[in-house]
Amino acid sequence: MALLEVRDLSVVFRRKGEEPTIAVDGISFDVEPGQTVGLVGESGCGKSVTSLAIMGLLPSRGVDVSGSVSFEGTELLHLSQRRLDERRGRDLGMVFQDPLSSLNPVVPIGVQIAEVLQRHRELSRKQARSEAAELLNRVGIPDPARRLDEYPHQLSGGMRQRALIAIALACRPRLLIADEPTTALDVTIQAQILNLLTELVADTDTALIMITHDLGVVAGLCDEVNVMYGGRIVERAERHALFTAPRHPYTNGLLESIPRLDAPRGERLVPIRGSVVDNIPWADGCAFAPRCPNAIEPCWSVTPALVADDGRMLRCHNPVEVPVTAGEGVR
Amino acid sequence: MTDDVLVTVDDIKVHFPIKRGVLLDRTVGHVYAVDGVSLQVRRGETYGLVGESGCGKTTLGRALLRLVEPTGGSVVFDGTDVSTLKGEDLRRMRRRMQMVFQDPMSSLDPRQSVESLLVEGMRAHGLDKGKQATHQRLKELLAAVGLPESALRKYPHEFSGGQRQRIGIARALAVEPDLIVADEPVSALDVSVQAQVLNLLEELQDEFGLTYLVVAHDLAVVRHISDRIGVMYLGSLVEEAGSDELYERPMHPYTKALLSAIPVPDPEVEDTREQILLTGDLPSPANPPSGCRFHTRCPWRQPARCDTERPPLREVGSGHRVACHYAEEILAGTITPHEVEPELAQS
């Protein structure tokens, strides 16, 4: 049994007098213990909403969450608030994009970390404080004993993100969800944080769901990658397979449209035409069809299903051909 | 022709005073946002400025157009010293240098239609010659940036991010500038749309013979569109070279670290490459380190000289300038990197 099983998860936002917005549209995936799974896509593809739904962080009014999220056999979606509170922070940790707005500005860092420890591991205040210092040390914050008494605004962006990771990992969760953890940071700091995350999850055998728009981050980090478009998974593959031979035109389009540092210069980028629109209709045809260079007749009328295709999952009527020149071209 | 220099920046400085106190308004220090940068931009080329947040790249771009007043140094644009221009002369000069901003939503007036946004600059510079001609010009502009003619009567909120950025570019083009300073032109856009705007910038350059100064934090983006790149760290230029040269033979330790920190969407590359991880944070530009600004984080730091003597930007090869005392030794491998204890930035 997988650590986390997400089945047919849908999230619909309802507003009075407006058409409901389908943010996540029946997605399913598994996370095995110790595995790193990526959710990639552009803004509005539903990747963040997916993580909020798993953590039960969506408001209860005006939002319909359906499907199933099973964590070690426990259904999270129907858990009472109290039960959920016991699990979050202990078994499930989360790191957000903007560390300044997810830390309490008027509470010292040390107290914010100790809070988790006291609550879930029932440590005394004193024990929690020394454990908090230990945690800060582990996430690479110099002079941790002094930092405990500082407030979030006194730390730099990278340090804040480290503090947030320390909080998320305080109880050695089985699963950590990181939602764009490095997007707000500079590249040299991003490299530090990604390194730290990889080390920590490897040391503690924590499973990680990495949510990002940056394919570069995914390439070095994730065992398995889910590419999302319009609230659905359009392609899922092991990272090497995904990057050497992307099959979905959207995945391929994303890869061709980013300037690569190691690509020969002067090569023109191949953009994806158009832009992401809200509330993409999967009902009649493929949501990506209007932007797709490979679109054929059925794409406009028949909704493609996510089917297994040579070791990966693919939702496309007319996928990108596997390049014959690639190593295993004999198939 | 390509050696023809359009902009010469000489030892430009922008220091922002830090004020304290209500009545006396004392100046208690300065933020050294740009601290002595010299560079040249040639006609028709794209010069890329990269660096992390707080390195002064945006301020430098703005100081070039005198959108912020430089504290010292000079900017010579096509033979005219812009730093001494005043009033009407400065206004006229500004027609020839335009800016494209990072966030297209906040740089377009939400209450102006696209037509009014585009015409405003033309009118201010006397390029609005009769209804017919102006309309023709607007049509050309929209066609050039890939927007339909129907866009004229619409307002900024009716467009997507990528389209708004196109409007921002069209507005800059409207007054027929020679130089466009683009400050993070694609960082607010989704990746699939980024490529559209980058391609557009290249096409426009070919078509109108524009000169670009592109300011961005994303080295991959900058390398893609620039002919030459300047790398900034804490208010000064640490390295400058041709795009390919910089990527193939980076000499400054900071450039090396920056290049190695950028994730590449290729698992093979990611699994095998060697990362130079910098420890610690960027020091505060209000209190920059002595000597070489980078010495607090530099894995190649040598005793004595690095923390006392500020390395000048010196020529080390054709068109390759670097500000490091030991650039050659590092390149030759006679100096090896060592561990650095992270120091915390005190703000």
UniProtKB/TrEMBL annotation, chain A:
A GO biological-process term: peptide transport
Predominant place of localization: membrane
Membrane topology summary: Peripheral membrane protein
Molecular function GO terms recorded: ATP binding; ATP hydrolysis activity
Keyword Transport annotated: yes
Record key words, sorted: ATP-binding, Cell membrane, Membrane, Nucleotide-binding, Transport
Annotated Gene Ontology cellular component terms: plasma membrane
Highest taxon of the lineage: Bacteria
Homology family: Belongs to the ABC transporter superfamily.
This protein's name: Dipeptide/oligopeptide/nickel ABC transporter ATP-binding protein
Automatic annotation (TrEMBL), chain B:
CDD domains cross-referenced by the UniProt entry: ABC_NikE_OppD_transporters
GO molecular function, one term: ATP hydrolysis activity
Pfam families from the UniProt entry: ABC_tran, oligo_HPY
Signal peptide stretch: none
Domain of life: Bacteria
Keyword terms, alphabetized: ATP-binding, Nucleotide-binding, Transport
GO-annotated biological processes: peptide transport; transmembrane transport
Keyword Methyltransferase among record annotations: no
Record family assignment: Belongs to the ABC transporter superfamily.
PANTHER family, sorted: D,D-DIPEPTIDE TRANSPORT ATP-BINDING PROTEIN DDPF-RELATED, TRANSPORT ATP-BINDING PROTEIN
Name this protein carries in UniProt: Dipeptide/oligopeptide/nickel ABC transporter ATP-binding protein
Organism of provenance: Prauserella muralis
